[in-house]
Write a structure and sequence with these properties.
This protein is of the alpha/beta class and 224 residues long. Helix content is 27%, strand content 13%. It is built from six helices and six strands; from the N terminus they run βαβααβαβαββα. α1 links the parallel β1 and β2. The radius of gyration is 19 Å and the shape is globular.
Length: 224
């Protein structure tokens, strides 16, 4: 049974070392009997037109969702962000009635160009890598998903092939053993966060144009 969904998001896989190796291994092992389905979002949607229904169906079939991507400006690449905006829809993934992802696990597998030492208060990235996880963790919480400890590979540009191979082996081993990981044995199930309907802009009735903001009363960021 394919109960693991892998979302690979690398904007330039042809020039990747780490994610190209991951894709090769995961595709090779994704045959009959494999636990996972691999979806390369940049290959699927080069025009950025996402098939939301197809992606939601893939999510519903999975119990573990894995995002694999290089860290871009301390976050996810643009197509994965668009995928998240459109697929994790209000009323489907979160908010009133949005319970389709409740009880699933979300695992982040990322690589960085900077070394591990650069992700320290005395390094040029100024923060430990954990400081960049709250947006991911809060996304999971809002959807009722359990956020698993991320798997990070630092210094991707300068790694020896043996180090990349070891990272690939670690990922595949974890996928094959999930959820039997000692590091998550004590993690509690996620309690879904609230997204009150009143915090969203009003939706226009069918056939009605959205109400324009008053020209002389521009909405401020604080009021949104």
């Amino acid at each position: 049974m394919q109960d693991i969904l892998l979302l690979l998001a690398h904007p330039d896989l042809e020039h990747s070392r780490v994610h190209a190796a991951l894709r090769k291994a995961l595709s090779r092992d994704a045959g009959a009997g494999a636990r996972w389905q691999l979806r390369d979002v940049y290959a699927l949607y080069p025009d950025y037109c996402i098939d939301v229904a197809a992606e939601q169906a893939a999510l519903q079939a999975a119990r573990l969702v894995v995002w694999l991507h290089p860290l871009h400006w301390y976050g996810m690449p643009p197509l994965l962000k668009l995928w998240l905006d459109e697929v994790f829809a209000y009323g489907w993934a979160y908010g009133p009635g949005g319970t389709q992802l409740n009880g699933k696990d979300l695992w982040l597998v990322v690589s960085t160009g900077g070394t591990e030492a650069s992700y320290r208060p005395d390094g040029h990235n100024r923060f430990f890598i954990d400081a960049f996880w709250p947006p991911y963790e809060q996304t999971a919480q809002l959807a009722g998903m359990r956020f698993l400890p991320p798997l990070v590979l630092h210094g991707a540009h300068h790694l020896a092939q043996a180090e990349i191979d070891a990272h690939v082996d670690t990922l595949v081993d974890h996928l094959q053993r999930w959820p039997d990981w000692p590091e998550i044995a004590d993690l509690m199930p996620c309690i879904q966060g609230e997204a009150p309907e009143g915090e969203r802009p009003p939706v226009a009735d069918a056939g009605e144009a959205p109400r324009a903001e008053p020209i002389d009363e521009p909405a401020t960021e604080a009021a949104r």
